[in-house]
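ok new one. same drill as before - C-alpha cells go in, u give me an amino acid for every spot. 229 of them this time. try not to just spam alanines like last time pls lmao
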C-alpha cells in the first residue's frame, strides 16, 4: 500500500469533502430537529406518512440513491439514513431498502477501487487509517474478521468496504456475508425509526440505548485488538 500513497492533492480533496458534508448536515439538523419533535403529534405523523406515500416509487428511488451515496462518500453517516428508512417505510421494507442501497454502493466502491486503485481510495479514506488496520495485511483472515466487524455496531465498516477492493478476495462472497452481517445494525436503526413514527418513544430510546452500549463495547474491543496487533 505504501507505494500507492497519494499526494497532498488527495488530502485537500478529502478535507473539502468533509467540510461540505459537515456544512450540509448543520442546516439539515437545525431544520430536522423541530420536525422530529413535531412527530409527537399523531396528526403530524400521519401527514408525514401520507406525504411520502404520495410520492410512490419516485420517493423510494430518491431514498435509494441517498443510501448508495452514503456508502460511496464515506464521510456521510449512515445511522440517520437508516432511521429515516424505518420512519418512512417501516422496519421490514426500510431494512431491505437500506441493504439494497448498501449492496449497490459497495459494488460501486469495489469497482472504483479495482479500476483506479489507491488514488481514488485516498479521496474518501485516509490511507493511514488503512495502514493501521492490521487484518488488512492478512488476506487469509480478512473475511472472517470483517464479518465480525460488520456485525458489531460502531466499527469501521466504510474502511472495510474500501479496503476490500485492494485485496485479493472473492468479491461475491465478501459482499454476501458483509450485507448479511450488517442486518442487525440496520434493523435496530429502522426499528427505532418505525417506533418514532408510531409515537413509541420509549422503545426508540431503549433501542438507541442498547445499540449505543454495544457500539461502545465494539469500538473498545476493536481498539484494544488493534493496539495489541
Amino acid at each position: 500500500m505504501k507505494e500507492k500513497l497519494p499526494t497532498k492533492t488527495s488530502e485537500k480533496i478529502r478535507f473539502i469533502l468533509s467540510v461540505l458534508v459537515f456544512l450540509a448536515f448543520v442546516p439539515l439538523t437545525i431544520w430536522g430537529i423541530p420536525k422530529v419533535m413535531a412527530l409527537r403529534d399523531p396528526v403530524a405523523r400521519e401527514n408525514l406518512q401520507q406525504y411520502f406515500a404520495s410520492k410512490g416509487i419516485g420517493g423510494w428511488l430518491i431514498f435509494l440513491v441517498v443510501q448508495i451515496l452514503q456508502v460511496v462518500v464515506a464521510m456521510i453517516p449512515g445511522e440517520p439514513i437508516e432511521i429515516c428508512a424505518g420512519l418512512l417505510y417501516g422496519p421490514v421494507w426500510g431494512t431491505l431498502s437500506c441493504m439494497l442501497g448498501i449492496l449497490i454502493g459497495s459494488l460501486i466502491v469495489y469497482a472504483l477501487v479495482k479500476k483506479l486503485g489507491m488514488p481514488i481510495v485516498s479521496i474518501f479514506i485516509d490511507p493511514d487509517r488503512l495502514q493501521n488496520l492490521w487484518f488488512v495485511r492478512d488476506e487469509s483472515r480478512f473475511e472472517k474478521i470483517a464479518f465480525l466487524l460488520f456485525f458489531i455496531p460502531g466499527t469501521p465498516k466504510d474502511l472495510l468496504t474500501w479496503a476490500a477492493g485492494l485485496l485479493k478476495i472473492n468479491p461475491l462472497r465478501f459482499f454476501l456475508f458483509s450485507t448479511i452481517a450488517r442486518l442487525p445494525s440496520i434493523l435496530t436503526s429502522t426499528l427505532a425509526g418505525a417506533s418514532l413514527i408510531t409515537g413509541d418513544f420509549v422503545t426508540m430510546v431503549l433501542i438507541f440505548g442498547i445499540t449505543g452500549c454495544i457500539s461502545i463495547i465494539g469500538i473498545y474491543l476493536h481498539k484494544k485488538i488493534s493496539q495489541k496487533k
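The radius of gyration is 19 Å. and btw The CA atoms of residues 51 and 88 lie 10 Å apart.
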